[in-house]
Amino acid sequence: MTKKSNSLLAAIACLLAFNVHAVSFTNTPNAAIPDANPTGLTSTIEVTNLSGLIEGVTVTLDITNGFNGDLYAYIQHGTNGFAVLLNRVGRMIGDPLGYADPGFLVTFVDSALNDIHNYGGNGGAPLTGTWSPDGRDVDPLTALNTDPRTALLSSFANDSANGTWTIFVADFTSGHQSVLREWSLDIVVPEPSTGALAVCGLLARFVRRRVR
User: Fold this and answer.
1) Sign of the alpha-carbon torsion through 49, 54, 56, 60
2) pLDDT tens digits for 143-167?
């Protein structure tokens, strides 16, 4: 086996010695979202000392009271990372107000089967469960269920997790006061499995012996 082949095998083995894990961060603003005010509310989480590039992102949002169809929310990080979590859920041709349920305790993940914009109403109770983000990067004043979904959590993939993560929530119709109680962020990044560095060291020494 050639020196190049041995080195390649060692590199592959070291890569396989890494696994992925989710690191969680939480912020609890407990702040009112300004009613009928597009300036909205922002909340941030600072992430430091995470190595490796992002492999996945999950966001959990806890909003109480209000009127779900009023709300627009996105999360942003870095230069290109931008995902629309909510954009006037339930708005469609013939229903400009959207769903009337009071609040969310939901987790957003791209792989979820159901788009939150079309959750169908929840009988006047806060919505719970796991949903795919709204993703409609359009004006909240005109957003409809038929708009394309172009702003999903996949936009954060292959970027550094470190830095400021910002969530923005705004209310676009008067008469219903919502509260951003809490939000959390799970970032999936690679990490060495137990003994990975030792294994890579042994492989490197083995390769050196074989190519002498």
Assistant:
1) positive
2) 999 999 999 999 999 999 999 999 9
